[in-house]
Amino acid sequence: MEIHQSFSIGKNHILMDEAAIQIDQQDKQSVQPKFLEVLAYLAKEYPRVIPRDELIKHIWNENEYVGEKALTNAIWHLRQKLACEVEQEEVIETIRKVGYRLLIAPTWHQQCTSHFQSETDNTNSTSVWLGLYPKIITLFFISCIVIILWQQFKTEPTQAPFKRAAQVTTKPGTEMFPSISADGRWLAYQWSPNQGDSNLYLKDTAQPNLDARQLTFDSAKEGHSVWNSTGDVLFFARKDGTKNSCKVVSLQVNTNQETILANCPIAGGYYYIDITSDDSMLAFHGNDDQADDSGIYFLDLTKENSEPVRFSCRSNCGYKDRDFAFSPDGQFIAVTRRVSRFNENIFLVNIESKAAEQLTFGEEDIVGLDWLADQQHLVYATQRADVRNGYVVNIDDKVVSELHIEGFSYPSVATQTNSVLFHQRKENYLIATYPLATDIASMPVPLMQSAFSHVYPDYSAINKKIVYVSNETGFYELWSASVDGSNPKQLTNLKRTIRYPKWSHQGDKVAFLAPSINENDEKLFVLDVATGRVEQVPSSFEKFNRPTWSLDDQSLISAVYQKDHVDLYQIEIETGNFQRVTFDSARYGIVTSDGELLYTKLENGLWRKEIASKQSGIMAIPATKFNTIYGWRYFDSQVFYSYKKAGSYHLNKYDLFNQNVTQLLKLPKRSFSSSSGMSVMVENNALLFNMSAYPQADIKIIENLKVSELVH
Q: How does pLDDT run across 239-259, given as a tens digit for each residue?
C-alpha cells in the first residue's frame, strides 16, 4: 500500500513526495519513507483503530520478523517529529494489545489535476483547444506516469546497510566494546561469559575460524581499548576494585608485556580511551584533586615520563566530558558532553583553541562514537529508554543519517577499509516474582514480559497494585498493574525518561525521578493517583537519586549531589524544605517502621541510624555479607537483597534480629538486574524484581560503510 498524496495533521504538514514533515513555517524535517507510510495509513483509515498486524501486513508485506520491531520504531520516531495541538497530549494513540489510531483528523492536499478552459463563444479559441487537446492529454498522462515512477523510486530507499551487517563473534555471554586495528585485521574486545570474569580477547579477522586469544587474566574490569597505528600495541584502562586502583595500561600483544602509563579514577563504570593516528597522544578518562569531576586527560607518548594534562573543563563546567574520538588529522576531538543523565550530546572541539561546536541535539545517552575515514562523518550510537540505535552525522551541515540497526553500540572504525565494527546489545527487561514460602527449590516466574522493557517494580499492599516503568510508548513512562500483572494502565505521558517509582505508605501517591523540561536537571516528582496530577517537588537542588518516603508521607528521602558531597536529604513535598540526614556519603535509604534509617554507601555493607541524629551510622549488615547499593528492600525486620559472588547473583534474606543470612536463589550474572531494586508482595509472600530477557551481546561488522547508502 502506497499513498503519495500529501496531507496535514493539525499544524503538521506531511509532504509525501519529499519524505518530510513541516510544522507550520518551520524547517522541513526529513523522515524515513516507511515511517510516513505508517502515518499515511493511519490518516487514510482515520478515526479507526488500526491493529498492529494490519499495519505490518500493508506496510511490510506481512513480514512479521521485520515489521514487529520496525513498526514500534516508526511510531516512536513519528511521535518525536509530530507537534501536538494545544488541546492534544499526543497525535498517535497507543491502544494497548490492539494497535494505534490517529487522534487528529487529517486534511488531504489537492493532487495534480488538469484544468481546461471552459467552452466559450470564441470559435477560434475552441478550434485551437480542440487541436491541442490530444497533445495535452498525452502530455498530462506522461507527466503523471513520470511523477508516479519518481515517487516510487523515492519511497523505496537504497538497501539499508544493516542488511549487510555480518556476525563476527558468537560466544555465549556478552562480547562488547570492539576495537579494530587500522588495517581491519586485529579485533580486541571484552568478553564476559554468563559465569566468570570478563577479560580482553584478541581475534584475527583474517582467520575467522580460529578461536580468540585471551589477553588479560584477572578479576579486574577491562573494557574500552584502542590500537596504535601498527596494530601491535593495545591501550586500555584496568579497574581493580579489590585493590582500589585504576591504571592506564599499554600491552604489547605479541609478548603480553604490560606497561603502566598513568592512574585513572576508581569511581565510574566506563573507561574511554583513544589515540591520535600518529601515535603521539593518548587520551583517557582521569581525575585530580583540583577538578570537580573526572574528564579527558592527554598523555604525550613521544616523551618519556610525561605527566597527563587535563583537557576537559576543570570546575563549574555545567557538563561532564565522557566519550571521545580524535579526528584522523589530529586537529579535533569529538566529545560527548553530559549535562544530566537525560541530556548528552556530541560536540566537535578544536584541540588547540578548545572552541566547541554542537553536532547532535536532543539526545539522552551517547553509547559510543568514532570517525569514518573521510574525516567528514562521525558514526555514533544513542540510547533512549533502553533502545539503542546507530547514526552517522556530517560534521559540516549536521545532517544525521540512521543506520537502522537496533542495539547498535560502541562503533569502532578500521580507517584503512572504512569498515565499522560494533556490538549489538538489545536490552529487554521483564518483571519476575519468586515465592518466599517454599521449601522446594524453584525458579523466578515472569510476571510481566513482552517485546518492551518493564523495570523498577514497586508494590503497594494498601491498594494491591504494582507500579513500574515501561518503554512501550518510546519513553519510559509510569504504569500500574494488578498483582498478577493484568490490567496495565499508563499513568503518565511526560515523554521523558521516568525512573525509580515508589509508592507512598498510604498508596495514594507515587514518587519518581525524571528530567526537568529542559532535561538539564534531574528532579523529584509526585503523582497523585486519584487525579493523575504530576507535581515537581520544589527544590533548588539540581541532581537527586532514588526517592523513598518518610513515615508520614510528607517528605521524600533522596540522595542529593552537591559539589563537595553526596548524602541523603529529607525534602518536604509541599515546601521543598530540607534537612541533611546522613553525613558519610550515603546513596540510598529506607525508613523502617520504627523510624530508623537503613542506608547504603559506595562501600559495601548496610548501615543504620536514627534519622534525626547527626552522627554517622553503625553497620547493620557487614560488608562481607552485603555488597549492593540499590538491590535491596526492607520488610518486617528482614532485608531482602542481591549479593554478587563469583560471576553470579544470590538473592539473600538477612534477619536483623538474629543476624543470620539465608540464601534464597542463585541467578546468572547477566540475567539479573541488581540496579533495579526489588519489592515484597505481602499477600503473595513473594519477591518482585527485574530480570534481563536478552543477556546476549555480539560483535558485528559493516564492511566498507558508504554514507551515500544511508537515508537521511
A: 998 888 999 999 999 999 999
Same fold, 161-427+696-709 and 429-539+596-607+618-692: yes
d(CA 627, CA 162): 41
Question: What pLDDT does 67 receive?
Answer: 62
CATH superfamily of 429-539+596-607+618-692: Tricorn protease N-terminal domain (2.120.10.60)
C-alpha cell belonging to residue 420? 565499522
Beta strands in 34-183 (DSSP E): 50-51, 92-95, 99-102, 106-108, 166-167, 174-180
pLDDT of residue 112: 47
- Write down the pLDDT at residue 29: 84
d(CA 638, CA 709) in angstroms, rounded, equals: 59
What is the tally of helices (H) and strands (E) in the chain? 4, 56
> Would you mind telling me the total number of residues written for the chain in this entry?
712
Answer whether 58's CB lies under 8 Å from 70's CB: no
pTM: 0.71
CA 486 to chain centre: 27
Q: Is 61 exposed, middle or buried (0-12, 13-18, 19+ CB in 10 A)?
A: exposed
Q: What DSSP designation does 341 have?
A: T
Q: Tell me if 409 sits within 8 A of 430, measured CB to CB.
A: no
Q: Are strands 697-702 and 257-263 parallel, antiparallel or unpaired?
A: unpaired
Give me the phi and psi of 411, to 5 degrees please. Answer: -70, 150
Question: Which residues on adjacent β-strands are paired with residue 190?
Answer: 176, 200
Contacts of 153 (CB under 8 A, 6+ apart): none
Architecture of domain 7-111: Orthogonal Bundle (1.10)
What are the phi and psi torsion angles at 683 (to 5°)? -60, -40
pLDDT at 118: 36
Give the CATH class of 161-427+696-709. mainly beta
pLDDT score for 380: 98
The residue ranges of the chain whose pLDDT is under 70 are: 1-2, 62-69, 85-89, 97, 111-163, 194-196, 438-441, 694-695, 711-712
The domain ranges of the chain are: 7-111, 161-427+696-709, 429-539+596-607+618-692
Q: Where are the alpha helices (DSSP H) in 165-207?
A: none
Strand, helix or coil at 612? Answer: coil
| Residues 29 and 15 sit within 8 Å (Cβ to Cβ) | no
Nearest to 79 by CA among 517, 489, 501, 496: 496
DSSP state of 671: G
Residue whose C-alpha is closest to residue 364's, from 495, 267, 268: 495
Strand order in the sheet with 273-275: 273-275, 281-286, 295-300, 309-310
C-alpha cell of residue 458: 514497586
